Amino acid sequence: MSNIEALVYELYEPRKLYLKKELIDPGSLLPNELIAKTCYTALSPGTELGAYCGMEPLRTDIPAYPRVVGYCNIAQVIYKGGDVTKLDIGDYFLNFQSHRSHFKYSENDFFIKLSGATIKNQCAAYLFHLGYHSLLTGRMQQGHNVGIIGLGTLGYATSVMSKIAGAATFVLSNQPSHKALLESKQIILLPKDISSVDTIYKRTHQIGIDVVINTSNTWDDWALALHCVNKGGTIVNLGFPGRDQPLPKFNPLDPRFLYMKNVTIKYLTALNRSGFTPHEQRFNMERNLLYILDLMENNVIDAGEVISVEIPYIDLEKQYLLYELKKENLFSTLLNWQ
């Protein structure tokens, strides 16, 4: 068998993105390994643009550069070892590989086997999972009022999951381009301004926001989150307040909010991927993704709504630059590797 030439995007330093070549030898497969070719990858714009532009890294246990980019991948099995039983040649599966054309994979690594005619849109399942996981982290309940700060990919995906879960859902953003889409789902778009707090109180029978999901990094939006949240409420940071920002001109731990309101602040942290029985851990990444894929299969979620455009894989850097310009309110981008 001939070697497979894989194309792999690697970021050597800020704004130095290369499509390098790696060789994969099918003859070197271990019994529990397979080789897959990527069909589609989806961008996670905030994470990937942060890496591309050189924002401070979120983790200190791995080098900032060089690094691969991307983590939403749908691939098809083209070779497999003799002990691989969960996937067959020709099967499609969702995984967390980066933007690359081919890769070697162990059956013991995390994946979800896919079916159905809309596999390309299922590439965005993990982006909805982040919103779903945020709501679970905030202990949102049916009947709660949820406020989501920011209308990027994750802000929109979170608002959809919030509405499905039965919450009155408010999105605070100064991006009006998706207003009609939100209104079609009975999601209320309000300006990203403290004056919106009064509007929310009037529309929620003087209750206000029980759970705030903050998708932003800016200190202004953190201040807005503190103003929006109810007494005894919860703020979940899906973004990273203060990342790549100058020092704030206010106290981000102001006791007027945290002490007087008794606010709970949580960060979205990693979940166990699989391995526990439901009674030991009801929600993990595998079960959450299977739930979201079921919603997609039953047309409860239209995953295509978070894909603003589909482009050939070779144009990835052009798309990063387009995101950086912020002339359009783009959601995710689908890279076609076929």
Describe the protein.
The chain has nine helices and 16 strands. By secondary structure, it is α/β, with parallel strands linked by helices. Strands 3, 5, 6, 7, 8, 15 and 16 form a seven-stranded mixed beta sheet that branches. A six-stranded parallel beta sheet has the order 11-10-9-12-13-14, with helices on both faces. A three-stranded antiparallel beta sheet has the order 2-1-4, with no helix packed on it. Strand 9, helix 3 and strand 10 (about 170) form a beta-alpha-beta unit. The longest helix is centred in the middle third of the chain and has 13 residues, at about 125-135. The two termini are about 20 Å apart. The model has no long low-confidence stretch (mean pLDDT about 95).
Q: Biggest β-sheet: count, sense, barrel? A: 7 strands, mixed
Secondary-structure element series: EEEHEEEEEHEHEHEHEHEHEHEHE
Residue share in helix:
25-40%
- In the CATH hierarchy, what is the superfamily of the largest domain? Medium-chain alcohol dehydrogenases, catalytic domain
Q: Which structural category fits the helices and strands?
A: alpha/beta
The CATH architecture name of the largest domain reads: Alpha-Beta Complex
Sequence-ordered SSE layout with sheet pairings:
Blueprint: E1 4-13, E2 16-24, E3 33-42, H1 45-53, E4 67-68, E5 72-80, E6 92-95, E7 102-106, E8 112-114, H2 125-137, E9 145-149, H3 153-164, E10 168-172, H4 179-183, E11 188-190, H5 195-203, E12 209-214, H6 219-228, E13 229-237, H7 255-258, E14 264-267, H8 285-297, E15 307-312, H9 316-325, E16 332-336
Parallel strand pairs: 9-10, 9-12, 10-11, 12-13, 13-14, 15-16
Antiparallel strand pairs: 1-2, 1-4, 3-5, 3-7, 3-16, 5-6, 6-8
Helix pairs in contact: 2-3, 2-8
